[in-house]
Automatic annotation (TrEMBL):
Signal peptide: none annotated. Transmembrane segments: none annotated. Belongs to the small GTPase superfamily. Arf family. It comes from Neogobius melanostomus. Keywords: GTP-binding, Magnesium, Metal-binding, Nucleotide-binding. Interacts with ARL14EP. This is ADP-ribosylation factor-like protein 14. The keyword Magnesium applies. PANTHER family: ADP RIBOSYLATION FACTOR-RELATED. GTP binds at G18, L19, D20, C21, A22, G23, K24, T25, N113, K114, Q115, D116. Mg(2+) binds at T25, T42. It comes from the Eukaryota.
Length: 179
């Protein structure tokens, strides 16, 4: 699975990251075309411009994540809710990316994908295992249950991410005025 940078209709630069097979491409194409696109593991990266109406690679690729998150308005981090064996690895990568100086304060939407499956972790378990409470105080985050195949939860998650981005932009504008 590649990592998926894209821009929204209000010209936000959003980056979708996560371990391979977490469902990043499925999330992207559900948002892009509002349909399920049967995917194969992505080699490299996908880039798409998508319009969303709001209000109603493999390990060796991971060092490249940094170049994709530069200047990001928001990060969508997709986690496979069923893959409890790799949640520690997902946690490590999530914390690594949010600690980068250029990502300080960038809002993170954590998509708990595959919540439709019977053996998926609960949101409380995921929040604890991903140590979301230990993310920097400067990093706003929201954990969103989702099923990317049918698109459930994605719109709500995007609306939360949009609200966090707008709040951050307002704060940054106020800080500039004070200087």
């Amino acid at each position: 699975d590649g990592n998926v940078p894209f821009s929204c209709s209000q010209s936000f630069h959003i980056v979708i990251l996560g371990l391979d097979c977490a469902g990043k491409t499925t999330v992207l194409y559900r948002l892009r075309f509002n349909e399920f696109v049967n995917t194969v593991p992505t080699k490299g990266f996908n880039a798409e411009k998508i319009k969303v109406s709001l209000g109603s690679k493999r390990q060796k690729l991971r060092p490249l994540w940094r170049s994709y998150t530069r200047c990001a308005d928001g990060i969508i981090f997709v986690v496979d809710s069923v893959d409890s064996e790799r949640i520690e690895e997902a946690k490590t990568e999530l914390h690594k990316i949010t600690r980068l100086a250029e990502n300080q304060g960038v809002p993170v939407l954590v998509v708990a994908n595959k919540q439709d499956l019977r053996n998926s972790l609960t949101l409380a378990e995921m929040e604890s295992m991903l140590a979301l409470g230990e993310l920097s105080m400067a990093t706003p985050w929201h954990l969103q249950p989702a099923c990317a195949i049918i698109g459930e939860g994605l719109q709500e998650g995007l609306e939360k991410l949009h609200a966090m981005i707008m709040k951050r932009r307002k704060t940054l504008r106020q800080q500039k005025k004070k200087r």
